[in-house]
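Title: Prediction job returns without error message
Component: structure pipeline
Severity: low
Priority: P3
Assignee: unassigned

Description:
Job completed but the reporter wants confirmation the result is attached to the right record. Sequence as submitted:
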Amino acid sequence: MKNGLIIFALFLSACGGAATNQNTAANTAARTPASTFAAKQAPDTELEKQFAEIAKEAKGKVGIAAVVLETGENASLNGGDRFPMQSVYKLPIAMTILKQVDNGKLSMNQEVEITKEDFVSPGQRSLIRDNNPNGTKMKLWQVVEAAVSESDGTASDVLLRVAGGPGEVQKYVGELGITDMSIKNTEKEFAKDAKVQYDNSSTPLAAVALLTELKEARSIPVEKISLIRDFMNESPTGPNRLRGLLPENTYVAHKTGTSGTDSGVTAATNDIGIILLPNGKYMAVAVFVSDSPVDEKTRDAVIAKIAKAAWDKWGK
């Protein structure tokens, strides 16, 4: 949480220190719900061919969707197919929390108690568990940061509980007009049964639709939702994925997702994010690598090469 305090101070300043927005209902009514992006242009077939060639290196199934938000330039591969999200699903969970903050149901400054019963399994990523073996109390915004930036499994499950369960997250996603994304299980449930990860699924197009909402802030005021984008840009996870081949310090607000490996096959190696291109435009991109027998370095490189191919094509 290296810059969390600074970011949160700016967040409170932008919000006037309040957790609610008196004009939320009117503002929301005036916005158009996000949905799978409506292509303003025909798909870039040349880029799609590049995607297909790069994807072969994974020797599994790869799903890709990418769009330049300002122009509608787009390309995809298996964009309408379902893939396990793994920790990518922490993004819609966090966005649901911000929506409830905006509605006045929650406050980002409220304290959240985290007990040992909330901890995910030792094999799952959780700095909260590792640093607080007897449990702790944290501000809600700190739990959001841990889930989104550090991909903390304990934080994710706590947020899911605070939000009211998977059904509340699914409801929010549905209100955005996104139908091809399912949020059903907790991180703890992932550890008990690896098969349930396939229930928490998304198409690449649905993931890009969620990223579009994250950038365009239709359902949540920008001064609130930008907090999540800042946490995502700070994230240390997956440095060799979307960021891997891009210039150092490129703005990449991203969320990774990774499964375990069973019998030499990795079910999910994912990264979705918003990337600032050299020409000042923003690209939303989702890459899901599923059921791949190759090593992590190769899987990460597939994601990095896809991001770089789109960067080179659309960034001029």
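Comment from assignee: result matches the submitted record. DSSP finds twelve helices and ten strands in the chain.
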